[in-house]
C-alpha cells in the first residue's frame, strides 16, 4: 500500500517521503508505526542529535521514536493523512484523512491537528511554507 521514494518536499541528504502504491480511501488505516517511548526529561539528550526533529509527543509525559515508516511522513498544512496515538498497542496509527490516489505522497500536519497552521520549529520563514 505504501513505499518510500524521493520527495520534492523534503530537502537535504534525506529527501524521502511515503507514497501510496494504490488508491487509499478516506479513513483507511495506512500504517501502524511501533514506538519506543521515553520520559520527556530524557529528551534533553536527544535534542543534541539529528533525531530530535523526528520525535513525536507521546502523551503528556513521554516522547517517542517512531519505527517503520512513521518517521518518514512529510509535513503539509493541507494533509491527506492524519495520525492517532494508540497507547494500548504502543503505535502511532496513520489514517487517510482524504482519499489518496496511487502515486501521491502521503502527508501529515506535524502540529497534530489537520487544520492547525501554527509555525513549525524548523521553518525559518513560516509564511513562505504555507
UniProtKB/TrEMBL annotation:
Keywords: Methyltransferase, Transferase. CDD domains: SET_SpSet7-like. Residues 1-111 form the SET domain. It holds the Pfam family SET. It comes from the Bacteria. The keyword Lipoprotein does not apply. The keyword Methyltransferase applies. GO terms for molecular function: histone H3K37 methyltransferase activity. InterPro entries: SET7_MeTrfase, SET_dom, SET_dom_sf. GO terms for biological process: methylation. This is SET domain-containing protein-lysine N-methyltransferase. It comes from Paenibacillus lutrae.
